[in-house]
């Protein structure tokens, strides 16, 4: 789901009922980036039409993609969050990560 959202594409989600799928599907629907459907072919067809016809889903998916692009790269995030509380002052580290400093300079 995240790869699709990172590309700015709205989702049609047909959950098979696993708890994690159900939670992620509900979160996507609540964010306005997805239409949920059961496994009935008629319901799927109606959901496809809804997600393709409504500009709001596309607009929200593009906004979410922009937000995802604004997040720190995984190596920077990992270096920041993998440090113990004794190794860093969280506020200054957060500021360094989000100020555009390179991943190698974080924590120095």
The topology string of helices and strands comes to: HEHEHHHH
CATH superfamily of the largest domain: Glycogen Phosphorylase B
Report how far apart the termini are.
35 Å
The gyration radius over C-alpha positions equals 19 Å
CATH architecture of the largest domain: 3-Layer(aba) Sandwich
Using brief descriptors, characterize the structure shown:
single chain; 108 residues; mainly alpha; Rossmann fold; 2 domains; 6 helices; 2 strands; 57% helix
Brief write-up:
The chain is mainly alpha-helical and 108 residues long.
Q: How does this model look, in words?
A:
By secondary structure, this protein is mainly alpha-helical. It has two domains: 68 residues, Rossmann fold, CATH 3.40.50; 32 residues, no CATH class. The protein is built from six helices and two strands; from the N terminus they run αβαβαααα. The protein has a two-stranded parallel ribbon. Strand 1, helix 2 and strand 2 form a beta-alpha-beta unit. The longest helix is centred in the middle third of the chain and has 15 residues. The chain is flat.
Question: What topology does this entry show?
Answer:
Elements: H1 2-6, E1 11-14, H2 19-30, E2 34-37, H3 41-53, H4 55-69, H5 74-81, H6 90-98
Parallel strand pairs: 1-2
């Amino acid at each position: 789901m995240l790869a699709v959202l990172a590309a700015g594409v709205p989702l049609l989600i047909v959950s098979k009922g696993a708890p994690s799928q159900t939670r992620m599907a509900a979160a996507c629907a609540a964010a306005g980036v997805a239409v949920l459907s059961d496994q009935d072919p008629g319901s799927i067809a109606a959901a496809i039409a809804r997600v393709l016809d409504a500009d709001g889903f596309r607009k929200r998916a593009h906004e979410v993609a922009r937000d995802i692009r604004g997040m720190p790269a995984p190596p920077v995030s990992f270096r920041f969050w993998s440090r113990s509380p004794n190794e860093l002052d969280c506020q200054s580290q957060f500021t360094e990560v989000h100020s555009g400093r390179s991943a190698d300079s974080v924590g120095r």
